[in-house]
Amino acid sequence: MSKILIIEDEASIRRVLVKILSEESDTYKVDEAEDGLQGLEKIKNEDYDLVLCDIKMPKMDGEEVLEAVKKIKPEIPMVMISGHGDLETAVNTMRLGAFDYISKPPDLNRLLNTVRHALDRKQLVAENKILKKKVSKNYEMIGESDAINQIKEMIDKVAPTEARVLITGPNGTGKELVAHQLHEKSERSGAPLIEVNCAAIPSELIESELFGHVKGAFTSAVKDRAGKFEAADKGTIFLDEVGDMSLSAQAKVLRALQENLIQRVGADKDIKVNVRVVAATNKDLKKEIAEGRFREDLYHRLAVILIKVPALNDRRDDIPLLVNHFAEKIASEQGTTVKKFSVDAIKLLQEYDWTGNIRELRNVVERLIILGGTEISENDVKLFASK
């Protein structure tokens, strides 16, 4: 059932709108208000899927209602009702965030199409929010240790800014989770997060991958191709294992950071990009700089904010939470019931030397769920989680 509110001071117009919508669909529940103040009060106290609002009204006009609603419930689509002399004002309401406007007297088809489209849009926005929450759960940071809480606090402070972030830590600690959290909590979350694993791309292809190429730039370049920086425009690019990037590519990344300009391989034309850079590495970049394998000027550009992700051995208190999280996730993926781990099994897992960090723990939990008993016991851990 879609709840629609009509705010209109002319009773005759209000009756027409209520009649049209009520007869159009039995899934429309139509409410009404005779002026802007009454309408705004109803919106504050009830949940509506759509508001039809007149522009010229006593006490509070439609523009004022629109601005107030956008502050308190911005997800509600507002369709403005304009008289003949209100057209310019109606157009202005679109700039203020109105979904659309319809003229008096309302054309039946135009009105119904606008209402359907507005409700479809509201549904789509709601579905996207649910989907985003599900996606976010894939990158949830599990843990309540001091080290993890400090990282969460740092993310909350840094994410809304444009500051570049360098994430350090051993392999398998979850550096990519930090990158995703930084993006999702940023003002750029509506734009793409483009991930590039610098260690997985051959050195001779890294520049083409990052910056794109033009046709004929090299043997296999059969057509123009945009790179990852262009794909991340207005969003975030995550340079994972940035310490493995060639010196040549480093020089081009440095220019992109300094000037917000890139150049495709084989081209002489600059392309402007607006990208936030988040980088990660498991290497000691200061040592790499001393040995001539990493540019010091690039390091200082990337490391405006440093976030160090601890090894699992340094946050053993989080292991019970992580085990339960992985057990629930694996059960969901496999369509089975969640297996519980005994207290002694958890204690034994906390004593292990986790050289592969969280990635290794996840693999061990999956192995125990497949091979262990109904409840994972200490003996199961000894049998199937041996190092």
From TrEMBL:
Residues 3-119 form the Response regulatory domain. Keywords: ATP-binding, Nucleotide-binding, Phosphoprotein, Transcription, Transcription regulation, Two-component regulatory system. Transmembrane segments: none annotated. GO terms for molecular function: ATP binding. The modification 4-aspartylphosphate is found at D54. Residues 141-370 form the Sigma-54 factor interaction domain. GO terms for biological process: phosphorelay signal transduction system; regulation of DNA-templated transcription. Coiled coil: none annotated. It comes from the Bacteria. It holds the Pfam family Response_reg. This is Fis family transcriptional regulator.
